Amino acid sequence: MKTAHYQSPFGCLKITASTKGITSLRLQQGGDCYGAKIPEELAEAAQQLDEYFHKKRKAFDLKLDISSGTPFNQSVWKELMKIPFGRTTSYSAIAKSINNPAAVRAVGLANRNNPIAIIIPCHRVIAKSGDLQGYFYGLDMKRKLLELENPMSYGEQGSLF
């Protein structure tokens, strides 16, 4: 296993990879990670994250290792990767797309268990009503990720006066 730390606008992200690909991308609690050396094997992941956060990348092109998930979770995560940059879908739409329309809550749980946040864009899944719901790192981070991708729909509205 290889590990790297990447300083994002949200704090330090820990990237872990197996020989098959990235296994996790997790926000670390407490502090920054400036100056941390990034192993050569994870330099591309750090570069693509940098491009994403600087609005120069709309899709990640990285090998992922999602083998730690159940078959159901893997099916949800694969479906999440189909959601286009700047767009959202609902938990119920994901459940329907994996041919299990009654599994709305299970889709939510699979999102919560997504080990590769941001790269597997679980932040793009919202409630059927259009409300932001559930995000492992909080709704504020979810809103900011959506705003980064689609400022017209999710950006804060300015005052007219």
Report on the structure:
With 161 residues, this protein is of the alpha+beta class. Helices cover 32% and strands 15% of the residues. It has 6 helices and 5 strands; from the N terminus they run βββααβααβαα. The longest helix is centred in the first third of the chain and has 11 residues. The C terminus is likely disordered.
Low-pLDDT residue intervals, each spanning 5 or more residues: 157-161
Number of helices: 6
H and E string: EEEHHEHHEHH
Average pLDDT over all residues: 89
As laid out across the biggest beta sheet, the strand order is 1-2-3
Shape: globular
- For the CA atoms, what is the radius of gyration? 16 Å
Would you summarize the structure shown here?
The protein is α+β, with helices and mostly antiparallel strands and 161 residues long.
Task: List its traits.
3-stranded antiparallel sheet; disordered C terminus; two-stranded parallel sheet; 161 residues; 15% strand; alpha+beta; 6 helices; 32% helix
SSE diagram, text form:
Elements: E1 2-8, E2 11-17, E3 22-27, H1 43-53, H2 71-80, E4 89-90, H3 91-97, H4 104-112, E5 125-126, H5 139-149, H6 151-154
Parallel strand pairs: 4-5
Antiparallel strand pairs: 1-2, 2-3
Helix pairs in contact: 2-4, 3-4
